[in-house]
Amino acid sequence: MSKNTICLWYNKDAEEAARFYAATFPDSKVGAITRAPGSYPDGKEGDVLVVEFTVFGVACIGLNGGPTFKHNEAFSFQISTEDQEETDRYWDAIVGNGGQESECGWCKDKWGISWQITPRTLMDALAAGGDQASRAFEAMMTMKKIDVAAIDAARRGDGVR
Length: 161
Known about the structure:
The protein is an alpha/beta fold. It has two domains: 1-69, 2,3-Dihydroxybiphenyl 1,2-Dioxygenase, domain 1, CATH 3.10.180; 71-161, Roll (2,3-Dihydroxybiphenyl 1,2-Dioxygenase, domain 1). Helices cover 33% and strands 27% of the residues. The protein has helices at 14-24, 84-96, 120-128, 130-140, 148-156; strands at 6-10, 29-35, 48-55, 58-64, 76-81, 100-101, 106-108, 114-119. The mean pLDDT is 95.
C-alpha cells in the first residue's frame, strides 16, 4: 500500500466498484481484499471490509462503511483523454454501467463517484488564455460529454464573426 492512499467510502460494494475500475481503465488493478474479522454495525464477520485498488496508477482503498456517508462532486477523478474515441470509451463505460451524465465533461458512476472525462485539447485551450480560452469555455458550457471537434473548432474561432 502507498504511503498516501485515497480512501473511498462505499455502502457494501467496494469490491464491485474496484473490479469495474480495473476492467475499465489502463494501469488499474484490484489488490488485497480484507474481510471483517468480526461483526460490525453494518456487516458481519467475513464480509468484505476493505479493497485495495489502483485507478490509472493512483492508489485507492474502498471501505465498505455502510450507508451513512454519500459521495458528492467535492471529490472526483479527472481523466485526461487524447481524442474523442478515448473520451467516448470512458464516458460510455461509466454512464453505461448505471452511471449518469452531468455537465461540462462530468459524470457519476453507479456508486456516486464523480468523474471528469477531460480531453487534453480542452485543457490546452483553457491554458492558452485569451480568446481561444473564452471560446472553448463557452462551447464546453453547452456540453455534457465533451465534443472534441466542437472544442477544436471553438479554439480556431470557426463560426465566430
